[in-house]
Amino acid sequence: MKVNMHTSHPSAFISSTFVDLYEDRTAIAEALKARGLNVNALDIRPASSQSSKNEILNGIKESDFVVLLIGDRFGSILKSMTGNETQSITWWEYTTALKMGKPIIAYFKNVDNDDPKSHDDKSDPLYKKKRLQFERFKQQVINRHNPSYYSDPYDLAVQLDESLISIYRAGVKDLCKKNSVLNSKINQLEAELSTLKSKTSSSPLSSSTNSVSGILGLGLDQQQLETDKQVQGLMDILGKRKT
Questions:
Q1: What residues does the DUF4062 domain cover (predicted)?
Q2: Could you tell me where the beta strands, DSSP code E, fall in 92-230?
Q3: What's the pLDDT tens digit per position in 176-234?
């Protein structure tokens, strides 16, 4: 799992159709928040406005991973937002997350009820087209992510909660690796600066060399601080998961 460098606090983006999976979204949002994560774009409804599009894009960008929920609705096709005539909003969010390199956890809901809001409207002129595209979308997700299946919001929340420990262990491991690389780079730069200082100690340029050293050190210290904050945030979540 790649940890987002835009924030020191872990966060997730929830992607799904809205009308049929509102309770499911709410359940996992509560589970994520209980573990100390931020939740992005929870209340965004499909819309064609540019502000909604930007909010969704920012929500995905600022998240460490995406939770994808798929029921039995393909959802709205809005070319004005997605730029194409075949993808639903959810599919577009999924594709966007892939392009941004976000880890994706996928869940398929076992829908076996007759509630109209749980299914695409058969009277919709685009119904057949939507169903064909929906099968393509689901197959793409199955091929890439080996999704889990759930029956209700409670079942979903339990499954997600159980998976967080492995997700964030991977995150901590990745951050610790980055921390090690950063320390190695710091040591390398310090050695180079030491050599440079020894060569220019008697030169008028020595004061400017010291200034460069201070600036570089400040930048590296800031990177170290941000990495340490992220490690601590993930460790806090792991601690909560154990309770």
A1: 13-97
A2: 104-109, 148-150
A3: 565 566 667 677 777 777 777 676 665 554 454 455 455 445 555 555 555 556 556 55
Q: Does domain 11-161 have CATH number 3.40.190.120?
A: no
Smallest CA-to-CA distance from 26 within 63, 146, 135, 34 is with: 34
Whether this prediction's pTM lies above 0.90 is answered by no
The encoded tokens of residue 171 equal 């995150």
Strand-pair partners of 13? 40, 66
Domain ranges of the chain: 11-161, 172-242
Q: Quick one: three-class SS letters along 158-185?
A: HHHHHHHHHHHHHHHHHHHHHHHHHHHH
Q: Are 39 and 11 in contact (CB under 8 A)?
A: yes
What is the predicted pLDDT for the residue at 135? Answer: 96
- The ranges of the chain with pLDDT < 50 are 1-7, 172, 175, 205-206, 208-209, 212, 215-216
Q: Are 65 and 1 in contact (CB under 8 A)?
A: yes
Task: Give the SS3 label for residue 147.
Answer: coil
How far is Cα 55 from Cα 209, in angstroms, rounded to an integer?
A: 44
Strand partners, 68: 15, 106
Q: What is the rounded distance in angstroms from the CA atom of residue 141 to the CA atom of residue 198? A: 58
